[in-house]
Design a protein that fits this description.
About 10% of the residues lie in helices and about 50% in strands. It is mainly β. It has a domain of about 40 residues. It starts with a helix and ends with a strand.
């Protein structure tokens, strides 16, 4: 009786095994079949005949080099066996030099300007390092230059010098440090930084500056309860070097800053949100200014890529009586919609259309370049951080508008951009444009080799048009215009 029972069970088990084996065979492709004589080039051709590209090596590179193949010598372990040293010092950067002729707000200048960016990176372990960034031949946003035309007609050489670091910070990971000191593998990652560190949020629109303070991140988290597969949360604070357009205290960059930002994969897209608080000092003592941002990015039907960004800022209390004329000047709201069409050449031909509307005085949280909330809307809204290249009003104050353009990347070895842009104020009491502004811009850049880059820009901008009801004034020359043309060489090292 027992033998009779076992036979069907064995047959069922054998049948199940055969089904599982067939499923396994169907799930995997056969192993590669090689000819009797191995053809190495043929295997490279499988991947499009691609080969490694050797970038320019830093002029100073001591110890463990970056992005090189092993095998490496065994490292020492003064910070613990689980957090071995990987010491290395690298000094690298770029040198930008441009010649330009700009007519900007009625002042025309022909000049050659130059700036030097130097990064100093001291690697300690795989997760800990000290980093500094220097811009020695400029002072704040004033660059070493030679003015040879325009202006008052005199040739003028301006040599700027500032040896102080633009950033100087330590960054590491508490999890790795804990592993090294305790001798036990940490179950968490907790990256942090402290010092004069760069804060870059919302693609640099909301924050793009170095602040003196610290930050800590809770990375790669998930929540089954909320249905979130991946999110990061970063907390940051600063106590000096806080550059904000609304700070008008005696020492305007010493107002404390506190903030939090989050990055979330959700709703078939990507969400970025944040909150910042600046505490007033001196004349603004007791005034708290709040900054809010949120953005949602996703692709729709393989046709349109869209990022919609919201920015808001407001003070929680009126200014003191002697500052009544400034009441509400720190309050603002802006919406920016960035759109690009997915063309038949999705990697190289990119039509785009970006739009904005702003109310009051929308401001970035921090920006040491004095750029407005619209600096990424289009090439007509950005300057070159070198020659004073003209731009449309980028405050977004009581105005709407945008930029429509076409970017072509050839074989991913050149860039050509054509763009038209507009700013249209709907009230004349904003801090920015009081009349309609229109811009027409073009940009071309190409790498000469792996170290040298050439870029050229041109723009023409109608910054203030006469009364729309008296359109013939335009033909009488009753309008203002800006224009600029520039050529730049950049040397990476």
């Amino acid at each position: 009786m027992s033998g009779t029972t076992a036979e069907p069970a064995a047959a069922e088990s054998s049948s199940k095994a055969r089904k599982e084996d067939k499923l396994t065979q169907d799930a995997f492709r056969p192993d590669p079949q090689y000819d009797a004589k191995y053809n190495a080039q043929g295997q490279v051709d499988i991947y499009g005949a691609k080969s490694p590209v050797e970038p320019p090596r830093p002029p100073v590179e001591l110890g463990r080099q970056q992005y090189t193949s092993g095998a490496y010598d065994e490292s020492s372990t003064p910070l613990g066996r689980l957090n071995p040293l990987l010491p290395g010092l690298a000094v690298y950067g770029d040198w930008r030099t441009a010649v330009a002729y700009n007519n900007n707000n009625g002042k025309d200048i022909a000049q050659i300007a130059t700036r030097l960016n130097i990064d100093v990176d001291l690697k300690i372990t795989g997760t800990e390092r000290i980093h500094a960034f220097f811009t020695p031949i400029q002072d704040d946003n004033i660059y070493t230059r030679f003015e040879f035309g325009g202006g008052d007609g005199d040739e003028l050489f301006n040599d700027e010098f500032d040896p102080d670091p633009a950033t100087l910070f330590f960054e590491g990971d508490f999890g790795s440090l804990y592993s090294g000191f305790s001798g036990k593998e940490a179950s968490f990652d907790l990256p942090f930084t402290v010092g004069l560190f760069p804060l870059f949020l919302q693609n640099g629109i909301w924050a793009n500056d170095a602040i003196l303070g610290g930050a800590v991140t809770l990375p790669a988290k998930n929540s089954a309860a909320l249905g979130l597969a991946n999110f990061d949360i970063t907390f940051f604070a600063a106590f000096d070097n806080v550059d904000n357009a609304g700070n008008i205290s005696a020492d305007e960059d010493d107002n404390p800053l506190y903030g939090v930002t989050a990055f979330v994969d959700a709703f078939d897209g990507f969400i970025e949100t944040g909150y910042g608080l600046i505490e007033g000092r001196d004349e603004l003592d007791g005034i708290l200014t709040h900054f809010l941002t949120a953005a949602y990015t996703r692709r729709f039907y393989n046709t349109l890529s869209n990022s919609t960004r919201l920015f808001a800022n407001f003070a929680d209390d009126p200014f003191a009586d002697f500052l009544d004329d400034l009441e509400g000047e720190n309050d603002g709201f802006a919406i920016i919609s960035e759109n690009s069409l997915i063309s038949g050449l999705p990697s190289t031909l990119i039509p785009y259309a970006n739009f904005f509307v702003g109310f009051g005085n929308p401001q970035p949280l921090v920006d040491g370049n004095n750029a407005g909330i619209l600096k990424n809307v289009g090439i007509n809204f950005e300057t070159d951080a070198l020659t004073g290249y003209p731009k449309l009003d980028d405050t977004g104050s009581n105005a709407f508008g945008g930029a429509i353009g076409l970017q072509y990347l050839f074989n991913l070895d050149q860039q050509l951009v054509f763009e038209v842009a507009m700013v249209q104020p709907f009230e004349d009491d904003g801090i920015g444009a009081q009349d309609a502004q229109y811009g027409f811009g073009v940009r071309y850049q190409v790498p000469i080799n792996r170290a040298w880059l050439f870029r050229a820009d041109a723009t023409y901008q109608i910054l203030a048009v006469a009364d729309e009801d008296n359109f013939e004034d335009i033909f009488d020359g009753n309008f203002e215009d800006n224009f600029g043309i520039r050529a730049e060489f950049r040397r990476k090292f």
